[in-house]
Each structure stands twice: as C-alpha cells, then as structure tokens.
User: What shape does this take?
Amino acid sequence: MSGSASGTRKMALWAAELAAEKKAEDLALLEVGRVSFIADYFLIATGATGIRVRTICDHLLEKIKEAGLVPLRVEGYREGWWVVLDFGDLVVHLLQPEAREFYKLERLWSRAPQVDL
Assistant: This one.
C-alpha cells in the first residue's frame, strides 16, 4: 500500500472522506494494528441500502484507483449486505444497518483505538 504508518493513516482518513461524500453513515476508523497483525486500520461505515453500499464502494474504488492503488480483493459486492475492500494495511467494511447491528464489528474489535474523524 503506502509503505508507512503515516501514509496508511492518511489513506484511511481519505477513504473515510470519500465514503462520507456518498452518504455513508456512522463512520468508524479503528486502529486495529495496535491489537492485531491483520491490518493497520479498519474503516467501518453504514450504507442505508444495498444500492447505497455499492454506490459508496464504487466511489471509493474509482477515486482510490485514480490514485494508483487497487484493492487486493473485494468481497460481497453483488449482495451489497457487507462489502469488504481489502487494501492490505487498510480494510474497508461497508455494511447495511442490519448487517452492522448483527456483526457488531466495533464491539468485536473494541480493544482497537478509535481514530477521531
């Protein structure tokens, strides 16, 4: 990805801004790298419907690809229930409200510090 912790943090904050541009709600940025080796940051956001989740996803992918970055993988796009964009150091979770309530990612990763957005 960026090769530096500060670069990853900037990318995560930028991804949050991009998601908000397309009406993502309840954005949370968790610094999971402090408690796990899975990634440095998780960005978690809610889209009101499957269409909204895919719209947020499309916007993120378009803008981030314009910056020369591509995700390692994208999961769940077709269903739009819970889309995961894996950029290595940053993993973006876009969920419908029911999925977010069911999976409770913030509680699961509660030991990870939350970054102010």
Summary: The radius of gyration is 13 Å. The chain has four helices and six strands. Residues 95 and 103 are 10 Å apart (CA to CA).
